[in-house]
């Protein structure tokens, strides 16, 4: 018996001959939805500071556990006040990138000179994600939207493949939610402490998180992108090398691997 | 006998380069009662004369709030205005839902302009028989837009459309320089005075026949009617007889 769902309920090939698929609208057979991500990006980390937001993600796209592409830019500048960070499926990221491109073009052609701010874009992307999950065809991403809101105040929020939204002074997706988030919360525990954090502090904090993630996340890389969004605009560096690594702690790890003691 | 062969539909030009159906639609606007709009640096005000078909009937609605940040005033076919205002309400709501953004006034204006223009270029359709003043506040401050059945829209500092609106426009042109720095109350006074100019001699502004729509920076669009505008009418036309108590005067009481 043919176990493939597309053969169910159809005349048997061995009796009636091969099924004629010609009447399908698509040449590739039945329409299929994403069941799991294929090429993936790992964590995105971001933190607010007193006059903006800093966001970072490494430049790796993994194919399973294979470090397949090492020059994938996962931070996308939308305009002078918004940067979107993508975790999860890279092809869905590219789809969203094209979607944001068309949105940007539409916005620039319309007569208004009131550009979409980070809050607007987060609402929009959350709606897109929720729409797709409701079609049972999710975009397999976890997004961080960093930038400034309508009052030019720092804005940071996430939207995931279920359309769930969340906002916090520090945010991290994927592995970073477990490894980076607690580190960032030590410095920025709540919204009130944001005003005491300078840009330099926040950048240092996020860089430290990228280092910890490289130490412990096997799907990460030591080359990453980092962006700061302030009233002065977006500062995006897409080729940062992880510095001051110290692997001394690795010696202490026991319980798995090749050590005998 | 002369017969105009070029006004049967809105897709045919006359040899003089005119589209009569569109011009007729603009005539419909001139038959509507007058509405005026004025903007300052901080506020946008609409004012309108309401007509009633007969003594016993209610007054025609002239100002329609669309979203919390803006509203429209209409002159012409009220039913066409309803179609447009419903569309504008939907578009405004959809902007708030999808982007969490109050739709910019220039944006909503160009969307109805596009709709209206299509009606002037497709066979079997007719132009909207209504002119609108779109007024409110968005991220870029207070605005006033004028919309015509032809699909033409313009941003205005002050504007009047409808029957005898030329008198109102003359008043507005005379006081053009004072609008920008006007306070909220002064702006309302200007709007009411402009409205009064275009009224025929035997008519007056009363709490029953006047509508005022006000919005400002940090102030949502609100429609004022009835007793809510009594104070403004009194303050604007201090020296008139009756002291602005028309609402009470008409009532007969045993005393």
From TrEMBL, chain A:
It is found in: Cytoplasm; Nucleus. Keywords: Cytoplasm, Hydrolase, Nucleus, Proteasome. One of its GO terms (cellular component) is proteasome core complex, beta-subunit complex. CDD domains: proteasome_beta_type_4. Transmembrane segments: none annotated. Gene3D superfamilies: Glutamine Phosphoribosylpyrophosphate, subunit 1, domain 1. InterPro entries: Ntn_hydrolases_N, Proteasome_beta4, Proteasome_sua/b, Proteasome_suB-type. It holds the Pfam family Proteasome. GO terms for molecular function: hydrolase activity. SUPFAM superfamilies: N-terminal nucleophile aminohydrolases (Ntn hydrolases) (SSF56235). GO terms for biological process: proteolysis involved in protein catabolic process. Belongs to the peptidase T1B family. Non-catalytic component of the proteasome. This is Proteasome subunit beta. The gene is PRE4.
From TrEMBL, chain B:
Residues 6-28 form the Proteasome alpha-type subunits domain. InterPro entries: Ntn_hydrolases_N (IPR029055), Proteasome_alpha (IPR050115), Proteasome_alpha-type (IPR023332), Proteasome_asu_N (IPR000426), Proteasome_sua/b (IPR001353). Keywords: Cytoplasm, Hydrolase, Nucleus, Proteasome. One of its GO terms (biological process) is ubiquitin-dependent protein catabolic process. The keyword DNA-binding does not apply. Its main location: cytoplasm. GO terms for molecular function: hydrolase activity. GO terms for cellular component: cytoplasm; nucleus; proteasome core complex, alpha-subunit complex. It comes from the Eukaryota. It is found in: Cytoplasm; Nucleus. The keyword Transmembrane helix does not apply. Pfam families: Proteasome, Proteasome_A_N. The 26S proteasome consists of a 20S proteasome core and two 19S regulatory subunits. Belongs to the peptidase T1A family. This is Proteasome subunit alpha type. The gene is PRE5.
């Amino acid at each position: 018996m043919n176990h493939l769902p597309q053969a169910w309920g159809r005349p048997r090939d061995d009796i009636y001959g091969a099924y004629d698929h010609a009447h399908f609208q698509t040449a590739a057979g039945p329409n299929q939805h994403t069941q799991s991500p294929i090429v993936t990006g790992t964590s995105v980390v971001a933190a607010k500071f007193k006059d903006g937001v800093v966001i970072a993600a490494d430049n790796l796209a993994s194919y399973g556990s294979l470090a397949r592409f090492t020059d994938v830019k996962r931070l996308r500048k939308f305009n002078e006040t918004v940067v979107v960070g993508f975790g999860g499926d890279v092809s869905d990221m590219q789809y969203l990138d094209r979607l944001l491109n068309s949105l940007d073009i539409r916005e620039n052609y319309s007569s208004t000179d009131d550009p979409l701010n980070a809050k607007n874009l987060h609402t929009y992307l959350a709606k897109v994600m929720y729409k797709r999950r409701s079609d049972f065809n999710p975009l397999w991403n976890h997004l961080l939207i960093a930038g400034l809101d309508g009052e030019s105040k720092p804005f940071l929020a996430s939207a995931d493949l279920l359309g769930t939204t969340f906002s916090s002074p520090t945010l991290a997706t994927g592995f970073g939610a477990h490894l980076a988030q607690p580190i960032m919360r030590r410095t920025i525990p709540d919204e009130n402490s944001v005003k005491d954090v300078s840009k330099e502090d926040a950048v240092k904090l996020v860089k430290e998180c990228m280092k910890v993630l490289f130490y412990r996340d096997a799907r990460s890389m030591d080359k990453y992108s980092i962006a700061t969004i302030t009233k002065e605009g977006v500062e995006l560096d897409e080729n940062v090398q992880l510095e001051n690594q110290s692997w001394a702690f690795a010696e202490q790890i026991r319980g798995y691997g090749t050590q005998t003691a | 006998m002369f017969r105009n062969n070029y006004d049967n539909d809105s897709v045919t030009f006359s040899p003089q380069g005119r589209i009569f159906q569109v011009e007729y639609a603009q005539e419909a606007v001139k038959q509507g009662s007058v509405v005026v709009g004025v903007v300052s640096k901080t506020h946008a005000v609409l004012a309108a004369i309401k007509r009633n078909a007969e003594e016993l009937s209610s007054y025609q609605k002239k100002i329609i709030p669309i979203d919390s940040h803006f509203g429209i005033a209409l002159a012409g076919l009220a039913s066409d205005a309803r179609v447009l205002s419903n569309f504008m309400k939907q578009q405004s709501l959809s902007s708030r839902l999808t982007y969490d953004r109050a739709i910019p006034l220039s944006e909503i204006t160009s969307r109805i302009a596009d709709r209206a223009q299509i009606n002037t270029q497709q066979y079997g359709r007719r132009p909207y028989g209504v002119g609108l003043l779109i007024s409110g506040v968005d991220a870029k401050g207070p605005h006033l837009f004028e919309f015509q059945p032809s699909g033409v829209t313009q941003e205005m500092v002050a504007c009047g459309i409808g029957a005898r609106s030329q008198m109102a426009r003359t008043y507005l042109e005379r006081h053009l320089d004072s609008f920008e720095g006007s306070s909220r109350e002064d702006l309302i006074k200007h709007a009411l005075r402009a409205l009064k100019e275009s009224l025929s001699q035997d008519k007056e502004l009363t709490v029953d026949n006047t509508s005022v729509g006000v919005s400002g920076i940090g102030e949502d669009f609100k429609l004022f009617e009835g007793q809510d505008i009594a104070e403004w009418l009194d303050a604007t036309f201090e020296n008139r007889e009756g002291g602005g108590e028309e609402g009470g005067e008409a009532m007969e009481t045993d005393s």
